[in-house]
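Hey L., structure's done. Input below.
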Amino acid sequence: MEFQEEVVTEVLRRLRRAEGQVRGIERMLVEERDCREIINQLAAAIRALEQAGVRLLANGLTYCIQHPDESSSNGYTTKEIEDLLLKLR
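Output:
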């Protein structure tokens, strides 16, 4: 499966954002910050990772629809795509 360059760029940006949020959460724990603040940051990091996964999967699904024979021969059947989607939820 091939990813479009703009999708890779977008996903990398989301991953960097999540990485920064996780580092922030670590600092918040060390600083003994309020639980609500920490949970809000955890939720934001989780959302960033979920959005990265959904974006990759959406691009992959588009590729599979446009190249069904190649995708299927590489193991990306509709069942595999469905399984990947369910892993994100």
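Helices lie at 5-30, 35-66, 68-73, 78-87. The chain has a mean pLDDT of 91.

-- N.
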